[in-house]
Amino acid sequence: MKKKSIFLAIIFMLFAGILAGCGADSATGKKDGKEKVVIGYFPNINHVPAMVAKDKGYYQKELGDGTTVEYKTFADGSAFMTALKTGEIDAGLVGPGPAMNNYSTGADVRVIAGASTGGTVVLARKDSGINSVEDLAGKTFITPAVGCTHDVQYETYLEDLGITSERIGGTMKHLTGNAAQYSAMLQAGKIDIAVAPEPWAAQIQLETGAEVVIPWNEISFGETLPASILVASGKMIDNNKETIDKIVKAHKEAVDFINANPEEAKEITIKDIEITTGQELAKEVVDLAWDRIGFTYEVDQEAIQAFSDSSYALKFLKEKPDFKEFIDLQFISTETASR
Questions:
Q1: Phi, psi of 75, deg, nearest 5
Q2: At CA 66, angle to CA 65 and CA 70, rounded to 5?
Q3: Of 24-28, 31-35, 61-65, 306-310, which gets the smallest average pLDDT?
Q4: End-to-end CA distance of the chain
Q5: Which one, out of 6, 70, 74, 327, has a CA that is 20 to 30 A from the CA of 98?
Q6: Coiled-coil segments, which residues (predicted)?
Q7: What are phi and psi for residue 199, nearest 5 degrees?
């Protein structure tokens, strides 16, 4: 009888534990009894729509009081895509390069809106002896990650000049790192070339005297390619269509606000980047960077295809991808899209 009582007690505790587990907050779906949505973005000016939506409470307003909105920042696209694939984040802004690379290898990622264009600038270290693009062969350059958006833009531009990286048999040496550290690395002579997203390009130019070798509007795909895109997983779109619709609405509100209120948007950007990186950007840095960026939630599908073709040609992608299901713009009204 005693053994039976112990057995029943164990069964009861196990059953209670299962019930407790079912009622507890999950890692990504619930918090304090509310639905939880996590938005990811990077601390650079191409990702200002996320910063503005966060500051203005647009996501929270659209998703309602029954949802807790959290934010997570990333230094590169690889970390962002890992977080999206594992469900650590539900949606967010990332460059098209990492999204395409992961999609081509089977990742469940979909583009649901554009966010920005432009913002990639190539700068040469002062006294590096680099006076034109022809001098870049054999030099050391840095980008946030191998095959990232900025890397593909840079290597595409130079390939037309017959200059390639060591990765594919050329002479350019490639390093990767956090763009916020590029100024220090240039001044220390660790790199010759910085392929930098804004606002770090403007900061490098103003702080170190580095020369712009390839302007934002001359680098490959500079004016047409979405520099950042809003993405989510196909599973999230299929299972939580209403949530995604609200996220896109909040995103569109943020883009409209940026275009209507650039000075206030700059203040929000400076504050958010300082909180995230510990670096306070000077207003003149942000002003210069802002002139090299456009904000829109439209997506140039032809530019994305051309970019992917180049990624394949540069051997960042093993197979030429089919993007039929990669871009899902059902949540965007083309009649009201920002231009």
A1: -90, -20
A2: 80
A3: 24-28
A4: 78
A5: 70
A6: none
A7: -90, 5
